[in-house]
Write a structure and sequence with these properties.
The complex is a heterodimer of chains A (316) and B (141).
Chain A: H1 2-7, H2 12-33, H3 49-59, H4 70-85, H5 105-126, H6 130-161, H7 166-175, H8 179-182, H9 184-197, H10 209-212, H11 222-247, H12 260-280, H13 286-314
Chain B: H1 2-10, E1 14-18, H2 24-32, E2 55-59, E3 62-63, H3 64-76, E4 82-86, H4 88-92, E5 102-104, E6 114-116, H5 123-139
Parallel strand pairs in B: 1-2, 2-4, 4-6
Antiparallel strand pairs in B: 3-5
Helix pairs in contact in B: 1-5, 2-5
Bound molecules: iron/sulfur cluster.
Chain lengths: 316, 141
Amino acid sequence: MPFLDIIVFPGLLFLLFLAFFCEWLDRKAVAKLQNRVGPKHTGPEGILQPFADFIKLLSNEDIIPAAVDRIMFSLGPILILTLSLMPLFLIPIAGSSALVWFEGDLIFIMFVMTLRIIITFLSAWSSTNRFSMIGGMRVILQMLAFEIPLTIAMTGPAISARSLSLSKIVQFQASEHLLLLAQPLGFVIVTICLLAELRMVPFDIPKAKTEIVKGWFVEFSGKKLALLRLTEDFELVLAASLMVSLYLGGPIGPWQTQSVLYFFTKLVICILILSNLRALFARFRIDQALKGAWKYLTPLALIQVILVELMPMVIP
Amino acid sequence: MGLISWARKKSPWALHFNTGSCNGCDIEVVAAFTPRFDLERFGIILQGSPRHADVLVATGPVVRQTKDRLVRIYEQMPNPKCVVAVGTCAISGAPFTGSYNIHGGIDKVIPVDIYVSGCPPKPEAIINGLIQAIKKYEKKQ
Ligand code: SF4
């Protein structure tokens, strides 16, 4: 039943639930690390908080300021949401092959992520606000800089598995070993780059709240803001599940078993890693972040790829 | 309608604006968001942009310089919205009443829903005020 797969499990509804769950987990974990309680009174332990935020924003007034470019301003959030949802269908969640997969879907995911940056910039630019313009410029600078080490590091697993498809990489890990053991450096690089792609705290330069208010989404309100926040949740899920499928073997458990529960556990661990980093660091300046990406992460990613190529020759 | 008013009750986002206070009230408002009092328990998050906020937490008397800005920020907020005036100054202008550059309390300029008195009010009082504001906000259409 492909239709049921797409709508219910592991399709849209499941992903929506997962996205809200991940936001709640992230907020709760950061609150715990900061010695707070976090959302508490919305459902049991505040688990319904992201859902309540979403519904409230949907019901709020949707303001379109007079100065904005109406078409791009209205289309932007919808396009960004679609583009962040699309790669999730290529992630193997329930079994070792995804809902949709083809040779080269890793490249497709990278392509969609780059496209998303451009749309983000366009919608920031079209809101004609000083803060959102600065935010938009920073989005372009930061995300394009971190895209390069991310792409290079992601070729590591692809070279090991001799395939450019996420599902094949997961199947390789099922038959051989987890790629985290072979390429720990790559895992670290991918984690840092994904943190930057998610614009989470050490890299929340494009939307620095205390400095440029909320950066590129300062003018969005009501439904558009709801969609943008949902996009951020989907991006969190996407980042964590990329880490899971590339390095931790996706839904593969011990003794060759496969279950969505394994995927879920690994996803929770990855999100806890991300929120731990988020609570640990303070924001970098834009020049520091770019210097880090070009000077350190890119060479390290190249070294990782060279190591992946050389390893089989040294240790047969 | 039940779902929407439930959602509104559970996630009122606040915007803090200083209309000319002596900074005493602002410190107390910020204190209400610190780990000790943690307003995120009730789903209240401090927002940076008026477009994202539902509750305007205004402190201090309205001085000439901030009057236009206050009105503009109020108009930038999406409907439904409510305003909490924190501190005696925000209620009436208190020690600064009659000064040449003072308009008086916040309600001289924009409609206020909840008044929190004190100079400065304790964080507990501010939390109570915000909860009263949530009750009012939930009923707004
Ligand atoms: S009420 Fe008191 S603490 Fe608050 S702004 Fe006025 S003088 Fe300052």
